Amino acid sequence: MATLKEPTIDEEFAALLPALTDEEREGLRVLLIEQGWLGTIKVWKGIVLDGRHRLDICKKYGIHYKTEEVKLPDRDAAKAWIIRHARGQRNLTPDQQSYLRGQQLLLEKKPEGRPSKQLPQNEGVTAERLAEEHQVSRATIERDAMFACDVNLIFDKAGPKAKQDVLSGGLELTKKDVAAIAQLPPAKLKKAIEGGKDAVKKAVAPAKAKPEVDYPVSAKFLNWLGSLSAFHTSLRTQHKTIAALLKTKGWQKSETTYAAELLDAVTHSLTTLNKEMQEHVKHNGK
Questions:
Q1: In the list 92, 178, 179, 201, which could disulfide-bond 96, CB 3.0-4.6 Å?
Q2: Disordered: where is this region (predicted)?
Q3: Is the pLDDT of residue 215 over 90?
């Protein structure tokens, strides 16, 4: 039964699955032109769940198509439906398979209102079931879920193309690389992915430690004096502010206790250092 409203494509839903290659799309185009529409296009609230490539070609070439509404409670259920029905339909890269397994775990056991990377306490039950379903270990499923979180973060920061580039395998990224680039600022992340695998590897490479310069003792001492002076100035500046805050009684006991212990430690270190400095002046000052 055809719906009155024209189906729409949701960017997040579409990005769950890899786009067709040029060869795959051409094969589908030829098949649709020769045979007409191939099965109903599944939609949820007018949003395409399955058949977006068929829909695009049908609309472009004026081929008649039909839609079928799928009853689902919410967006997470819709995304889980897409993943379940996509398995086995395409040749997927290992990273794409890993992402879909992980995303399935996140969707099926994500408590309402909790960030997706915080898995619930009872997620082990679902992880065991999905491990059996996909014929992998539970540990693999749980690692897949963490990988899916990183890929989703890349999608949020840099868009669907960046996500597809990461999952395609062309960038030759390890899961550790993906976790690292997911933490980059959006602009830097997008630029790295657009630059290809060398740019991505460079972006996630640990910074080389600068060789320590062996400064003369006098220079080191003067540098330390500068740091000590800055610390003293900061302490004097903040003293009145902290004292005023303490009078508000808005601090937790644990916080004030820790602050007191920290000040005791600083006082002890400064007292010990002062004694050593006084001894040095006494014996070498003349």
A1: 92
A2: 110-131
A3: no
